[in-house]
Design brief:
The chain is α/β, with parallel strands linked by helices. The protein contains 10 helices and 12 strands. It has one domain: Rossmann fold.
């Protein structure tokens, strides 16, 4: 689920039509997990095109790629949580890593396998149909685990994911996750100016939120960085986090970006310079968080 946005994998690539919320402590059941799976299956065929990989998404991808590359040596073994169509996994294979790419959507996994075969990188990338709630079925040790564009926003039990990441990661290994945050100034302004106040406040929900995509439902949790890290704190130390698409528009506003490209590129440079500063780093369409296994 390369990301719902990736959940804004990507729900961020696709605006929501309908939104309703679930109680904060109510766990997702199997039917809701299947809702999310069907939503991503439905877009898998063209998800590595403009739907899920436009210019703004590509810019955010590059930040995660370079962060993983800087944190881990070439040749390291990586686990991709929510690989989508395999764009990230193939990039890391080309950079010399070995990747096990997993996704809850079987159609996304098939797209990844096709991409790997076309690139003749089967010796470096293995794709598996496995959701983030099923990591207990995975064996082996990894040097790093990454997740791009919010698949972990769909995890029904984030602490269980943290426990499994700790089991699978070697001591000193790194987690690099791109997560949909609670505070996206662009989104607040975009929907509030249109009088869609309920939609503007979706990320404030404390429980799972049903977000519509392609006439299907994606069940999504939103986090502040401190809320997200709390689930991992038992096993991991926090290295850093920064905003993604804080000044730059979020990917679902790519048409605005295309009409005002020069202006938005200036905003992107502000993201690069200021996105890691206190107060600002917890906002944006996503945040990028790095943690180390104790």
């Amino acid at each position: 689920m390369d990301g719902q946005h990736k959940l804004e994998t990507e729900v961020h690539a696709l605006p929501a039509r309908n939104v309703h919320q679930r109680g904060r402590n109510a766990p997702l059941d199997e039917a809701q997990l299947l809702d999310t799976q069907r939503a991503f299956d439905s877009v898998a065929a063209d998800y590595d095109g403009p739907r899920g990989n436009n210019e703004l998404i590509q810019r955010m991808r590059l930040t995660l790629w370079d962060t993983v590359h800087s944190q881990l040596p070439a040749g390291a073994r990586l686990l991709d949580l929510g690989c989508g169509t395999g764009i990230d996994a193939l990039e890391f294979a080309r950079r010399g890593f070995h990747v096990v790419a997993t996704d809850w959507s079987p159609q996304m996994v098939e797209r990844t396998r096709s991409r790997v075969a076309a690139a003749a990188l089967g010796s470096r990338v293995t794709a598996a149909h496995l959701g983030v709630q099923q990591l207990d079925q995975l064996d082996g040790k990894f040097d790093g685990i990454y997740s791009n564009f919010g698949p972990l926003n769909c995890a029904p039990d984030l602490r269980a994911v943290a426990d499994e990441c700790a089991r699978l990661l070697r001591p000193g290994g790194r987690l690099v996750f791109s997560v949909m945050g609670r505070i996206c100034p662009w989104e607040l302004g975009h929907y509030a100016l249109r009088g869609r106040f309920k939609r503007a406040g979706v990320r404030a929900a404390r429980g799972a939120t049903a977000v519509g995509m392609n006439r299907h439902t994606i069940w999504t949790y939103y986090y502040l960085p401190r809320e997200f890290y709390a689930a991992f704190a038992e096993h991991f130390s926090l290295e850093s986090y920064r905003a993604l698409s804080l000044f730059m528009p979020p990917p679902y506003l790519v048409d605005y970006y295309r009409r005002h490209r020069n202006w938005c590129e200036r905003l992107g440079r502000l993201d690069d310079r200021l996105g890691g500063l206190p107060l600002l780093r917890g906002m944006g369409d996503h945040f990028l968080i790095v943690m180390q296994r104790r």
